[in-house]
Specification:
9 helices, globular
Length: 214
Amino acid sequence: MVDIFQEVDEELRQDRLKKFWEVYGRLILTAVVLVIGAAAGWKGWDHYSLTKRIDSSYQYQIAENLLREGKHDDALALFSSLSKEGFGPYQKLGEIRKAALLRNAGNIEAAVDIYASISQDVSQSRILRDAASLNLVTTKLGEPDKKLDQLIADIRPLTQPGRPLRFSALEILGLLEIKRGDKKSAESIFKKLADALDAPESSRARAVQLITVL
């Protein structure tokens, strides 16, 4: 008798399973295929992005080597290409280096436009935006009609704790204060930089020298 009940129960379970599969089987298979497809897509994108990042890094290094060899035109061509086709942060790094070469060649307006665009692009990392902002200030410093008060106002936020390039920003801020004629403010800034134990040693050494001069 027990065997009969077991057989009946087994038949009922198989019947329920069959009906369940008829109703939900296709949905389950679709979901599984989607999950596998998504995983494969992610792996494919991961491989693609890694390859593109390596290629961009290699191109950036070649451009830097050309620059060190004094081949500025060739370096500019590579940085320009990288600024259009580079992957990840290397695209904006290429733009920043391109702007520096344009600035050195006397094309201040083009350099300012590039730096301003990157500094205001919230989709970029903080360090790239701050690097563009620092370069923007130093580029504008060479303009005939420079406005020191505005440049100081532009760079001051970059000196706040937590900003990635705050020590470089402090150094530039101190130099701007010297140009403005406010030696007291400049000395205070350089003292702050000299006392910052986490600042680069070269920045601290320059700060000490400037304090002595002031």
